[in-house]
Amino acid sequence: MLSSAKTNSPSPINIVQTGDPVLRELAQPVAISDISSERFKKTIADMKLALDSQDDGVAIAAPQIGVPLRIFVVSAKALREINDAYAKKYAGSPDYLIFINPTITKLSRTRTDLDEGCLSVRWLYGKVSRSNKATLQAYDEKGEKIERGASGLLAQIFQHETDHLDGILFTDKATQLEEIKPEEKEQVK
Ligand code: ZN
């Protein structure tokens, strides 16, 4: 998912764009015994590289680099922008948050239409109705089971990224879709 920054450099890792079938697949669960494997670590490293190559990227799901597994990564940079208690706890953290086999277990009934964009749907933006709060169960990169509650941007990220793992793009749900080219983008909130 995206924040509202302006520029991007070419990614060393290809970020799959809409139209590629991998974005429409139901991503497969990671075998927990694979979490310590080199191949799995490479996938996580590639996801971080792809995310870091995009100034406006705040989170990325594995299918977005062509890997149909149930993983998403939230950037530390995003956490610093997020104003809620959970994010504050992590705000000084140099690393990323990694969620493996995430499942949303709770969504608040209160929803808000939020601005949204996607690293895989350049350069469309729109409004998506998201729950204000979300709770997620997952495994972390050590293979430990975790549960996280979030509000605001992090709750939005939880919903956007778990949608990716089910083959859903934000454009399936968005209203007021419009194309905003990078050079026009700083005029937009
Ligand atoms: Zn996305």
Q: What does this entry look like structurally?
A:
By secondary structure, the chain is of the alpha+beta class. The chain is 22% helix and 27% strand. It has helices spanning 38-52, 76-81, 85-90, 152-165, and strands at residues 59-61, 71-74, 97-107, 111-116, 124-131, 133-139, 145-151, 175-179. Strands 1-2-3-6-7 form a five-stranded antiparallel sheet, with helices on both faces. Strand 4 and strand 5 form a beta hairpin. The chain is globular, with a radius of gyration of 15 Å. The model has no long low-confidence stretch (mean pLDDT 89). The protein binds zinc ion. Zinc ion (ZN) binds at residues 1, 118-120, 160, 164. The site of zinc ion (ZN) has 6 residues, from helix 4.
Give the helices and strands, then pairings.
Layout (H helix, E strand, L loop, with lengths): L37 H15 L6 E3 L9 E4 L1 H6 L3 H6 L6 E11 L3 E6 L7 E8 L1 E7 L5 E7 H14 L9 E5 L10
Antiparallel strand pairs: 1-2, 2-3, 3-6, 4-5, 5-8, 6-7
Bound molecules: zinc ion.
TL;DR?
By secondary structure, this protein is α+β, with helices and mostly antiparallel strands. It is built from 4 helices and 8 strands. Zinc ion (ZN) is lined by residues 1, 118-120, 160, 164.
In which order are the strands of the major sheet placed? 1-2-3-6-7
Biggest sheet overview: 5 strands, antiparallel
User: Which ligands accompany this protein?
Assistant: zinc ion
The stretches of 5 or more residues where confidence is low (pLDDT under 50) are none
- Provide the structure class: alpha+beta
Arithmetic mean of pLDDT: 89
- The percent range for helix content is 10-25%
Number of helices: 4
Give, in order, the helices and strands.
HEEHHEEEEEHE
Shape: globular
What is the count of β-strands? 8
Instruction: Bin the strand percentage.
Output: 25-35%
- State the end-to-end CA separation: 15 Å
Radius of gyration, whole Å: 15 Å
